[in-house]
Design goal:
Helices cover about 75% and strands about 0% of the residues. With about 210 residues, it is an all-alpha fold.
Length: about 210
Amino acid sequence: MDFQTGFFYLFSAVLLFAAFRTITARSPVHAVLYLMLAFSQAAAIWLLLKAEFLGITLVLVYLGAVMVLFLFVVMMLDINVEEMRLGFWRHFPLALVLGGLVGAELIAVLWMGFPEMVVAPDVLQTAMHLPDHNNTREIGKLMYSQYIFPVEIAAVVLLVAMIAAIGLTLRGRKDSKAIDPSIQVKVRAADRLEVVSLPVTRAANQERQA
């Protein structure tokens, strides 16, 4: 066993442990932390597979942004864990069936492989070690040529989700002190400032003598 294989088994074992603890942890904060550990191990496996772009993207996007946001949200919310666990055993049979179905599909895919995408190992190794080989460029070519339609569908779904999130949280508050910009741009200086002429009741020199 070489070092690369050893690191693969190490990262995979930690990934499976973190994924298991994510769904079994009693505290939501601990579950998010275990999920962050799982993402970090998945990024390490991507790096072992020479997919540097995917590994760094996983670290920057999920660990650096999404999971930190989840962690702050979970820590700020007062989540009643006991109330959430009341219907656990009622939904457990359905969850078990769905989990078994997903597991069977994954096993079938891994067992049968991808016959239409089989590449000879010597050809793959030669292509990956070419001087001008670039993983990011190759992924970009596939995304915006062969998979352009799924990328557009994903972009539309994300746009709809973003608009829906803004629409759900955009509520008018009566105690808000927001000002309409259209009213601000129509304001004149004469409406805000008024110069008042006051008569002098006491001379300056008399005030100094007093």
